[in-house]
Design a protein that fits this description.
Radius of gyration: 20 Å
Pfam families: Methyltrans_RNA (PF04452), PUA_4 (PF20260)
Enzyme class: transferase
Order of helices and strands: EEHEEEEHEHEHEHEHEH
GO cellular component, one term: cytoplasm
Helix content: 25-40%
Distance between the termini: 24 Å
Largest sheet: 6 strands, parallel
Subcellular location: Cytoplasm
Bound molecules: S-adenosylmethionine
Strand order of the largest sheet: 8-7-6-10-9-11
Protein name: Ribosomal RNA small subunit methyltransferase E
Length: 247
């Protein structure tokens, strides 16, 4: 639940909006049913439904649940807009694995049509996918899905994090695994730190984009000798990172 829909005292919770609708119309919830509620920030509780009004479900808290499904390192996934519904795959699976924020962006070889008018609706749909994936994964937080960024807007994001990596299949120097290990041992990547992983579109990044990204503070890394699909690359990057950081 978004925080404004989780108006709780220590004893009672009011569920409103889409979640109240889902509980009443889809789940056919009844008084006495037990559900798990989260405010998507810092609180999760097992509750028992005590009242069903139009558009509002009232419940009493049975038990506060420990919040421990979040990763130690906050990872942002920047994904150049891919074709079809691949962005949905990245958001859904990336949320399950533990990403904290998604930054879709445009790069030179982005092939998908970008329509600013349809943008708000699409971001809303992606945010809903992140919410559903977070719920199914028992995440405490719903990752934020940002509106599509320009290439320049993406580059400045490197300054907002402790480490920024850009995945480049032609990189023959730096592999992601040693880059993570080095960042972990130098303390750059540790509990509470932020990391950004950027992935290119189907046609990849241009050499010039990699140069610009490195000048902006990104480090170009390889994910191995095999060329991964754009929707696979971020998921591999996330998995490697959490493997090395331990959670
Ligand atoms: N043509 C395929 C497709 O349609 O998805 C593969 C595209 S690959 C060029 C897309 C992006 O995935 C690249 O820009 C890069 O960010 C990332 N990527 C794929 N394989 C990689 C590798 N082995 N090392 C680093 N990055 C990789």
């Amino acid at each position: 639940l978004p925080p404004e829909q989780f108006q709780s005292t220590s004893a009672q919770v009011a569920i409103e909006g889409d979640d109240a609708h889902h509980l009443q119309r889809v789940m056919r919830a009844e008084i006495g049913d037990q559900v798990i509620c989260s405010n998507g920030v810092d609180r999760e509780a097992l509750v028992r439904i005590t009242g069903l009004d139009k558009g509002r479900v009232i419940a009493e808290v049975i038990e506060e649940l420990p919040m421990n499904a979040e990763t130690a390192v906050e990872v942002w996934v920047a994904q150049s807009l891919p074709k079809g519904d691949k962005m949905e795959t990245v958001i859904q699976k990336g949320t399950e694995i533990g990403a904290a924020r998604f930054l879709p962006f445009l790069s030179e070889r982005t092939v998908v049509q970008y329509d600013a008018k349809k943008e708000a609706k699409r971001t809303e749909r992606w945010q809903k996918i992140a919410k559903e994936a977070a719920e199914q994964a028992h995440r405490n937080r719903v990752p934020q899905v940002e509106a599509v960024l320009s290439w320049k807007q993406l580059l400045v994001q490197a300054k907002e994090v402790d480490a920024a990596w850009i995945c480049y299949e032609k990189e023959d120097g730096q592999q992601l695994k040693p880059a993570i290990q080095e960042a972990v041992s130098s303390g750059k990547v540790d509990r509470g730190k932020r990391v950004l992983i950027a992935v290119g579109p189907e046609g990849g990044f241009t050499e010039q984009e990699i140069e610009q990204a490195e000048a902006a503070g990104f480090r170009s890394v390889s994910l191995g000798a095999r060329i991964l699909r754009t929707e696979t690359a971020a998921l591999v990057g996330l998995t490697c990172l959490f493997y090395e950081t331990g959670e």
